[in-house]
Amino acid sequence: LFAHVEVAAPIEVFALTAKYNEDKFQDKVNLGVGAYRTDEGKPWVLPVVRQAEIQMANDATLNHEYLPVAGLPTYREAAARLLLGEGHKALVENRVEGVQTLGGTGAIRLAAEFLKQFLNKSVVYVSKPTWGNHKGIFKAAGYAKIEEYRYWDDANRCLNLSGMLEDLKGAPENAVVILHTCAHNPTGTDPTQDQWKEIIQVCQDKKIFMLMDCAYQGFASGDLDKDAFPVRYMAEQGIEFFVAQSFSKNFGLYNERIGNLAMITNNPDMKLRVRTQCELIVRKIWSNPSNHGARIVATVLNNQAYYEEWKQQVKTMANRIQLMRQLLYEKLRSLGTPGTWEHIIKQIGMFSFTGLSVRQVEHMINHHHIYLLKEGRINMCALTTKNVEYVANAINDSVKS
Ligand code: PLP
Predict the structure, then answer these.
(1) What spacing in Å lies between the alpha carbon of 397 and ligand 1's midpoint?
(2) Fewer CB within a 10 Å sphere, N or C end of the chain?
(3) pLDDT in tens, 236-283
């Protein structure tokens, strides 16, 4: 029955971790998977998350009944407030809706399904390069065309704004574009606020639907408000758009699969229409969402003291990344590694797009037991004060060999 089914190609980032786990070398380093690590190289359960979990475990009023199809209301409201900022006019005007999803991935898939069914979308534009799953999600949702817009200027290691604008101007009117709200994955390079305004204007002129992918709020600058700039600006302009929010990274809730599809519409009537149709889509895919992650996020965001603690803990993560950028840069400079490395300190967020070639990446893996994606992206959080020198030496060797 299954003989014709071919073994699927491995998913690079998971295959890399499996290879890393098998590696017996003592000083091995996994720079592949996008998850935060402490300076001891360990996963971090945020202390405020632990506190919320203890509180939840002791709350006899909670139970395991089904959640509403659209998810936990206190969570969805808190997620929208975090995104847009307390008192934002779109919230006051009651035109923002949220549907709880299975991580940011689920939010993107739900958006893809909704846009195809109700706005007749069949073309999507993703940045070149982008997170490895964007194309696949839209392909799986049946989009006829998955196009790329230029984003990265390889020669100068910066944003290729003119290329991006030109490609967006050339997109058909009915297209969807995915824009990374902050901490672009994999390049760690975001538009400035003025550049955002230009990008948004072009999309508006061309009537391109903007799906904002917001997987790293707080990780780019350490400031949750600043990182949400493009989304808040768009909502102020009265633009209708969607945001795929993820709490995997900024709450460290990777395996709880907690996301939200925030839908910014023009009025309460539109909000009702999109939410109820999304509920019917959800009903057919996962029926209703899981509870634990939503309750953690709602408990923290709806309690002022917890919220303040969480903001500090997001800063702790962002600052540690910044420090690792600085240390890696300084080590490479002191080794005299050929090439320019300023991009490591200029880039922001979880990742650095190193510029290492496929051959150099292979050299890192095969000779130094340091695992990273073929495209040269490294997870800055996987660096520690103990391994940064080892990694810098290996980069130096790979570049020179
Ligand atoms: N979007 C981007 C750009 C990401 O990097 C990721 C995860 O790495 C996601 C979305 C999906 O996040 P989640 O794990 O919450 O599905």
Answers:
(1) 32
(2) N
(3) 999 999 999 999 999 999 999 999 999 999 999 999 999 999 999 999
Ligand 1 binding pocket (C-beta < 6 A) is 34, 103-105, 131, 180, 185, 213, 215, 246, 248, 259
Kindly state the DSSP code that residue 5 receives in the 8-state scheme.
Answer: P
- Please give the model's pTM, rounded to 2 decimal places: 0.96
Q: What is the pLDDT of residues 341-374, one digit of tens each?
A: 999 999 999 999 999 999 999 999 999 999 999 9
Report, at the CATH architecture level, how domain 66-302 is classified.
3-Layer(aba) Sandwich (3.40)
The Å distance, Cα 187 to ligand 1 centre, comes to 14
How far apart, in whole angstroms, are the C-alpha atoms of residue 134 and residue 338? Answer: 34
- Phi then psi dihedrals of residue 189, to 5 deg: -130, 120
**Options 44, 131, 196, 341, the catalytic residue:** 131
The two tokens of residue 95 are 């035109």
ipTM score for this prediction: 0.99
CATH class of 12-45+319-400: alpha beta
Ligand 1 mutation target, pool 131, 247, 378, most atoms within 8 A of CB: 131
Using most ligand atoms within 8 A of CB, pick from 14, 17, 101, 105 the residue to mutate for ligand 1: 105
On the question of a cis peptide bond just before residue 289, with omega within 30 degrees of 0, the verdict is no
Q: Would 12-45+319-400 and 66-302 be classified into the same CATH topology?
A: no
Q: Where are the beta strands (DSSP E) in 75-163?
A: 96-102, 123-128, 145-150, 152-153, 158-159
**SS3 assignment, position 358:** helix
Task: Return the domain boundaries, the chain.
Answer: 12-45+319-400, 66-302
Tell me the pLDDT tens digit for each residue of 151-201: 999 999 899 999 999 999 999 988 999 999 999 999 999 999 999 999 999
Cα(215) to ligand 1 centroid in Å equals 5
